[in-house]
Structure formats: C-alpha cells, structure tokens
Amino acid sequence: MIRTPLRPLARILRARERGENPDAIERENLRLRNEAIRDRARARAEGRLFVLAVFFFAAFGSVGIRMAVLASVAPAEPRAAPTGAQILANRADIEDRNGRILATNLLTYALYAQPPMLIDPARAAKELARIFPDLDEGRLLAQFTGERKFIWIKRRLSPEQMQAVHDIGDPGLLFGPREMRLYPNGAIAAHVLGGASFGREGVASAEVVGTAGVERVFDDWLRDPANQGRPLRLSLDLTVQAAVERVLEGGMMLMNAKAATAVLMEADTGRIVALVSLPDFDPNDRPLPPTEGDPSDSPIFNRAVLGVYELGSTFKVFAIAQALELGLVNPDTMIDTTTPMTWGRHRISDFRNYGPRLSVANVIVKSSNVGTARIALQIGGARFRAFLGALGLLEPTPVELAEAPRGRPLFPQGNWAEISTMTISYGHGLSASPLHLAAAYASLVNGGVRVYPTLLQDGEPRLGPRVVSEQTSAAIRQMLRDTVVQGTATFANVEGYEVGGKTGTADKPRRTGGYYKDKVIATFAAVFPANDPKYVMVVTLDEPVETSGPEPRRTAGWTAVPVGAEIIRRAAPLLGLRPAIAQAAPAGVTLARN
C-alpha cells in the first residue's frame, strides 16, 4: 500500500508561488485520507452484515421448514434407529383359524419398593396387606426395615390396585412398566396355549417367555422382530373349542368321571380343530407343577398328549384293517369266536358270548376280543408291529406342543410274543394318547393316507405315505358306521349326521402293578360323516360311572359314547356340516267311491 504524504513538496511550492496557504493542502489530504478509511470500514461492515443476514435467514428458514414438516405429518415417538425402521419388541398375538384372539399383550405395571425412601414403613406394609390379601403384613414390615435396598412386591397390577397403591402416597413405593401376556378367553384352549411368564426382568421392562404349549414351542418366533408383529395362526376354532369344552365338562360331571379328554381333527389334513383336557386351568394364572403325588392329577397335565392309556377295543380296527389290506380276510370271512380262548396259561374272553362264529365285520360291530385275537395271529407280531408303527402309534406325536415329546407310547420292546400280539390287537398291552388314536383313525378313514396332527392353520398339511388302500379304507368306514347303527355305539347315532365309531373300555392299571376291578378308561373314537369323513373325534373318560340304572355301568357305550354324540350334535353345525334330512314319503291318495 502506497501512503500519500499530507504535505507534498511540489504542491507546497506551487501554493507559495500563488500566495496560497500551504496548510490548506495538508488539511485537504487529511480529510481525503479519513474519508477513504471510513469508506473501507463501512464496506467491510456491510459485507459482514450481509453474511450474517444470509446465515440467520438460512437458519430460521431451516427451522421453519422443519416445523412445517412436523406440523403436516402424524405425531410419532422419536426413534433412535438410524434407518428409521421400527423394531417391534412385542410378543406376537396368537389367533384361531378365523383370526380371533387367543393370546395377546397388555400394558401393566409392576410394584417394587426402595426401603430407604419409605417414609412410614409400618403404614406402607399395613396398606399393602389390605390391598393385596395374599401378602403378609409382618413379612413386608420386616423387609422394609431390613438392609435390602430393593424389593419386588407384585409383578403385575390391575389399574384399581395401582390406584390404591398411589393413594398410599409413600415415595418408596414405585412402579415399573410391564407388558404381560393376556389370554382373553380364560381357560379355553389352556393346554394348547400353555402360558407365558417373565424371563429377565428390570425396573423398566421385562422379558415375556413361553412356559408350555405352543407359547414355548414358538417362543423364538413369537419374539422375533423380523415377523413385524404378524400373529401366529392356529388351526383351532375358538367357537368349536368352547362348545367341546362345555359339553365335555358336563359329560364328565354326569358320568362321575375323574377327568376327560377330547380331540377333534380334520381327517384329510390332521389339523386339530379342538383339543380339550379336563380338569383345566386359567393360563392367566398358571398353577405351579406338583411336587408330590401323581402328576396326572394336576390340572396342567395335558391328558390328550401326555396321557398314555390302554385304549381298549378302539384298537381292533387296526388289526382288521391290516388283515384286509394283506388279503387274509374280507368283511364276510367267518372267524372262530368261541369263548373263552385259551393260549397257554392265558384266557381271552368276550364281554358276552357272541356264538361260535362271527364275520370279520361283526367282529368289529360286536367288539369280539377272541375274533380280533385270532385275526392278529394270522397277521403275526412283526407285521402287526410294523403296521402300528406306520400309523404313528409307537412314537411321540409330532404335534407342535412342548409336552408332545414326552408322550411316548408304552409297548413291549423287542419281538412281540404271540400273546402280546393278541392282547395289543384289542387294546391291552399298548398305551397311547388320545391324540395318537385320532391321528391313526384319520389315516385309516381318509382314504388310507397317513396324516400328522398339527396345530398350525397356515401352510400345506404334512401328509405321509399310504398305509391302506382306498378299498380297505371304505370297508373300515362301513364297519364303523355299522357299529353305531347296530353295535356297541348306538347312542352315537346322531340324527342328521352319519356317524361311525368304535368303543373301547380298558381296565385302569394300578401304579403298583395289576389292574383295578372297578375303574376303567372309556374311549369313543368317531368319524363323521361316515360315508366321506371330514372329521375324526376321540373322547376319553377316566374312571366314569353311569348310575342312572339299578347297577353302575362303566363301559364306553354307556359313558363315552353319549358324551361324544352330544359333542357331534353341538359341533357339527359350527363346523359348517349341514344335517342330512331324510326325504319324506310322498303323500298317498285314496280313491273314494260312492
């Protein structure tokens, strides 16, 4: 920068020559210098103000645009995920086949205490014992006045209980949010759903995990955020399930039974429409497993899957079906049924004397132990065992329940002796669950293709290999229908529905060995409609006694069959099966002559 002098010599000399004042030149130059400095400073200030104005305009413009965007969209909680994808931590709902809720979630709160913050521990303990009668006031006071810094009091609270605790007004009583599992239908389908409980817990949240039933089997799936809250859809029909439970409970009381089980299954797919085990429980408050006594006496024991029983004469169908399939007999083949049948030191007898000979069809209709045993001898132990294995009667059922792997059938190991083959053919010496029986019957009557029981509605059903031919399946269906029309299950002849079925009455084994003389397991296995079976049903009563007559009656024809008939009468319309109405005879015309 070149600085201009205030008193340039040339101008001073010229001014003196003209008689002018040289000091004026200095003052003029000083003024010009100051004006230049002022102009430069002003330009800098104006530039800075412009930049600052642009900055503030951009900042306030951005804020205004953001406010406009927020005002124009629906309100939502801020998310920390950088991608903006919502992660669903909730446990998925469980629905029936029609989308009705079986299990869902409910936001609630847990109650805990921090004793150092309690103002009046004695009053807090007293008030809490009043609100929660199951809590002990003395124990609470001892905990509040001890050395503990944190105490869980209640894992779940109702809104009324929460308000009552609020009213105590003690700052040492605090609440933590909880998402609890809710079963809005109470005890309906309790053994299928199983139940859920809290896993890892913190003050701010708790993990909900399945403890039994489908809740446990599908625990990972129900908790997987990748499913985006998609519900688990079961094959159960809530309406049918409720109807079956109500009828079965009434039948259990009417027949003075200790317990009862019912399974209703689609014959072609193996999808379970209803599965009931009584006594039952409310999964919202699942009881603890028993620590002593017979586990099967507990209400949480699933008799339909875990309970393995000798199912009596319902097994006769299997021996007859295999003999028909092998070509050893046909429905009209006559069988020696002379009773008693002696085999070594063993004697096999029928319930009553049916005469010296019965056709194969009548062996089923009359339920002859002797006739079935003779047919089983023709089959042989190895082939009969292989056939029962093909029907799934020698392994746990693959149904999607946590208890299923423990429901193992009981049967003689190794090669079966001839006496074992004979007794198993009429249902003694092999114990299986009612669900085993339902799946095996479905495989026989649906045309002969093995089905696997399932509780899932979505997806293709799992079908196995063919176990019998169409002809054998048709013959078995006719025998089952004849059993209801004129055999041991006549009480199951429901008007409007062509029902086929087979009864089974087995002496109940003692835990110490041997059998009770006055306690039985009564079973009725039914198919309907018999000409084209859509459904298979199994009803089992534990220790039933029908007392309407002069003497107590325990056979399945008097106990399980009437209960099964009432279930079909109630459930068939709910399943969409229209009753077949017999055609009325044409009106006669009488010619009158005078």
General description of the model:
With 594 residues, this protein is an alpha+beta fold. The protein folds into two domains: 94-232, Alpha-Beta Complex (Penicillin-binding protein 2a (Domain 2)); 239-288 and 296-574, Beta-lactamase, CATH 3.40.710.10. It is 36% helix and 20% strand. The protein contains 17 helices and 20 strands. A hairpin with a 5-residue loop joins strand 8 (259-266) and strand 9 (272-278).
List the helices and strands and how they pair.
Blueprint: H1 9-17, H2 22-72, E1 94-95, E2 101-113, H3 121-131, H4 137-144, E3 151-157, H5 159-168, E4 173-182, H6 190-193, E5 195-201, E6 206-212, H7 213-217, H8 219-223, E7 232-233, H9 238-254, E8 259-266, E9 272-278, E10 309-310, H10 316-326, E11 334-336, E12 341-343, E13 346-348, E14 357-359, H11 360-366, H12 369-379, H13 381-390, H14 418-425, E15 431-432, H15 434-445, E16 449-451, E17 463-466, H16 470-486, E18 500-509, E19 515-528, E20 535-542, H17 560-574
Parallel strand pairs: 1-7
Antiparallel strand pairs: 1-2, 2-3, 2-4, 5-6, 8-9, 8-20, 10-15, 11-14, 12-13, 16-17, 18-19, 19-20
Helix pairs in contact: 3-4, 3-5, 9-17, 10-12, 10-16, 11-16, 12-14
